[in-house]
Design brief:
The complex is a heterodimer of chains A (108) and B (112). Chain A is mainly beta. In chain A, a hairpin with a 2-residue loop joins strand 6 and strand 7 (62-66). In chain A, 0% of the residues lie in helices and 59% in strands. Chain B is mostly beta strands. The chains are: A mainly beta (108), B mainly beta (112). The A-B interface holds A 4, 31-32, 34, 36, 41-46, 49, 87, 89, 91, 93-101 and B 4, 6, 33, 35, 40-45, 48, 55-56, 58, 88, 90, 92, 97-106, 108.
């Protein structure tokens, strides 16, 4: 069965303090790795899809990378508005399997 | 363009009752999936429908059922509600397999 593990569970950053979130996965036949941002009480907001090892994608202060066993979400010079829970998921056949998420808090 | 829309946004039900949740996908999307998210956890897959046919089902009891209509909207039905069914229910739509899935704002179900 597909497994996704995210670390750390929570991350407290000072504004401007760059950091990385980790997503390790075990899946038979990866068809895509997804990153989502989720604000409290709302649905996940799509950020990136990565399909193959070595692929990288960027959006504003966020950059996602993928290897054969894990993915990283790098947050560069974060701002308070980057505070959210970041979810990682793998796509296999017909469903997304999610990790539990990393809750990021950025203090001004 | 409208995103994925879900209704209602909040719902309170009593144990043993039945509930119907509704989802309208993004225009042009033919695939709809349902997920359950309990507080502090990632979403868990319940169903996927494509072209009105069930294409996948997660590890949920038969009390959970769903269907997709000709206009690609979908309903999730839960019978004999339990306290443990309290969660945020999410609908996602996408083009056929392997592409980005976009989520609605969810329906917060509270069972008392």
């Amino acid at each position: 069965e597909d497994q996704v593990t995210q670390s750390p569970e929570a991350l407290r950053l000072q504004e401007g303090e760059s950091s990385s979130l980790n997503c390790s996965y075990t899946v038979s036949g990866l068809r895509g790795l997804f990153w989502y941002r989720q604000d409290p009480g709302k649905g996940p907001e799509f950020l990136f899809t990565l399909y193959s090892a070595g692929e990288e994608k960027e959006k504003e202060r966020l950059k996602a990378t993928l290897t054969k066993k894990e993915s990283f979400l790098h947050i560069t010079a974060p701002k308070p508005e980057d505070s959210a829970t970041y979810l990682c998921a793998v796509y296999n056949d017909y469903k997304l399997s999610f990790g539990a998420g990393t809750t990021v808090t950025v203090r001004a | 363009d409208a995103g994925v829309t879900q209704s209602p946004t909040h719902l309170i039900k009593t144990r043993g009752q039945h509930v119907t949740l509704r989802c309208s996908p993004i225009s042009g999307h033919k695939s709809v999936s349902w997920y359950q998210q309990v507080l502090g956890q990632g979403p868990q897959f319940i169903f996927q429908y494509y072209e009105k046919e069930e294409r996948g089902r997660g590890n949920f009891p038969d009390r959970f059922s769903a269907r997709q209509f000709p206009n690609y909207s979908s309903e999730l039905n839960v019978n004999a509600l339990l306290l443990g069914d309290s969660a945020l229910y999410l609908c996602a739509s996408s083009f056929p397999r392997g592409t980005e899935a976009f989520f609605g704002q969810g329906t917060r179900l509270t069972v008392v």
